Amino acid sequence: MNGKTVHDADPYWQTYYNDAFQFGMGAEDILQALAAVPAVHTWCDLGSGSESLLWSIPLTAHHLIAVDIDPERLAILSRFAARRQPRPAYETALTLCNRTRADFAQRCRALAGTIVADCLASPALPLAPASTDLITQFGLLGLTTDPPHFLDAWRRAHAPLAPGGWCAGANWIPEPSRQHGRVALTDRLYRHAFADAGIRPHLLRRVASSDPQFPSLWLYLGRKQ
């Protein structure tokens, strides 16, 4: 994720997706939703942090570009991809998605590059318009400050999406004491964003989470018209 997250790079890496897979926090719902995306040539994961390879498990993408403001998170991701060995939580994800270790190694080889960029503030992403078949974000847009910021960031995030391309993502909703400075996400706001970007929603729902700091999340899947 981009911007200010619940942990810095290495603690986040160790806390959420290291040992046992943490059921009930939304990850299994995201994996199930991503399984509906058809094979794509180019995938861009925005605000990727260190975890793009977890979300790659149900996907088939030939080239992955990970974009994040934090070079340390991208370095963790690159080192992990180079090893091509799934951690315990990833092993569970492979089982849930009916994938093998060989499949995971293939996903690691698909990491074609990383880009350091602020996806929430940059006037334009360093990607050509209509050049990407799949754009994802997991946690990024929930860090916007208000509806206009969310809509602007959404519009710029999906400018590289090609006609017929897919988008998918999830944004965790903090408990009230952590809500200050974050946009209040609603069904109406998401549907406004979809319509504004010319994307047809295929899935949009709020999912409960067992994480007391983030007790629910919005999950979506859409296709550019």
What does this structure look like?
The chain has 225 residues and is an alpha/beta fold. The chain has one domain: Vaccinia Virus protein VP39 (Rossmann fold), CATH 3.40.50.150. 33% of the residues lie in helices and 27% in strands. It has helices at 9-16, 27-34, 52-56, 71-83, 88-96, 101-109, 147-157, 187-197, and strands spanning 40-46, 61-68, 111-116, 132-138, 161-173, 199-208, 216-224. It is globular, with a radius of gyration of 16 Å.
CATH architecture: 3-Layer(aba) Sandwich
What series of H and E elements makes up the topology? Answer: HHEHEHHHEEHEHEE
Distance between the termini: 27 Å
As laid out across the biggest beta sheet, the strand order is 3-2-1-4-5-7-6
Please write the CATH class name. Answer: Alpha Beta
* Class by SSE composition: alpha/beta
> CATH superfamily, called what?
Vaccinia Virus protein VP39
Helicity range: 25-40%
Low-confidence stretches: 1-6
Structure summary, number of beta strands: 7
Number of domains: 1
List the keywords.
225 residues, alpha/beta, Rossmann fold, 7-stranded mixed β-sheet, 7 strands, 33% helix, globular, disordered N terminus
Secondary structure blueprint with pairings:
Elements: H1 9-16, H2 27-34, E1 40-46, H3 52-56, E2 61-68, H4 71-83, H5 88-96, H6 101-109, E3 111-116, E4 132-138, H7 147-157, E5 161-173, H8 187-197, E6 199-208, E7 216-224
Parallel strand pairs: 1-2, 1-4, 2-3, 4-5
Antiparallel strand pairs: 5-7, 6-7
Helix pairs in contact: 4-6, 7-8
